[in-house]
C-alpha cells in the first residue's frame, strides 16, 4: 500500500513539474516577463520618439509624470483599452447606423464597417471609435477627402502614414499609394493595416498598440499618451448604450 502511495505521489509530482515547465516556457508566459513597469516607463520617458500630451489645446512633449498617468494600468479610466480587438462584436447594422448618424463623411457607411469586421476580424466598435478620434468625428480635411490635381479624392480615416508636421500631406500621400479613393476603401484599408501590423503582431489591445509592453518604445501606433484611453472611453460608451458583450480583458503585461 505504501509503495502504491509513493508511486501515485511520484506521478503527481511529475505531472505538476511538466505543467509548470509548459507554463514557464510558453510564449504567453514569456511575453509577460519582458520588463517591469518601472523599466518600461523609463524606456518611454527616454525614447527617441517622444510622447506628447495636449495642454492648452496644443500638443507638447510629455514628461515622465504625464506618461505614467496614462501608462499605469491601475490608473486607467477604462478597461476597454485592455480588451482583445481581434474578436468580432455581435451588433446589428441598425445599431452601427445609429452610431454613425452624426459622424460627417462616415455617416451611412455602416455596411463598410461591418464588412471590414467580417473580412479582417477587427472589432467594429474599435474601428469606428478609432476613426472618430482620427477624423474629428468624420469632419477633418483628411477624412473629407484630399482632392488631387486630376480631380480624384483620397481618404484616410486612421491617420496611417500621417505625421504631425504635415498630417494632411503625408496622410493623403499614403492614401494615394494605397488607392483609397472612397470612404469604403479607406475603412477596409485601415482595418487591414491594423490587423496586419498590430493584431497579428501580438499588439491586440489598444494598450499594447500604444505602449507595446513586451517591447517598450518600439512599434507604437501613436505618440499621444491619451490615445488608447480616449478610444477606449468612446468604445465603452457604445458598449454600454447598446448593451454589447465585451471580449476578454488583458492586464498582465509586466513582471
TrEMBL record:
Per UniProt, which keywords does this protein have?
Membrane, Transmembrane, Transmembrane helix
From what superkingdom does this record's organism come? Answer: Bacteria
Keyword tRNA-binding applies: no
- Please report a single Pfam family linked to this protein: Glucosaminidase
TM ranges: 7-24
Q: Which InterPro entries match?
A: MGlyc_endo_b_GlcNAc-like_dom
Q: MF terms per GO, please?
A: amidase activity
All copies of the Mannosyl-glycoprotein endo-beta-N-acetylglucosamidase-like domain together span 98-251
Please state the span of the N-terminal signal peptide per the UniProt entry: none
The record's comment on protein family reads: In the N-terminal section; belongs to the N-acetylmuramoyl-L-alanine amidase 2 family.
What's the protein name? Autolysin
| The organism of origin for this protein | Mammaliicoccus vitulinus
User: What lineage does UniProt assign to this protein's organism?
Assistant: Bacteria, Bacillati, Bacillota, Bacilli, Bacillales
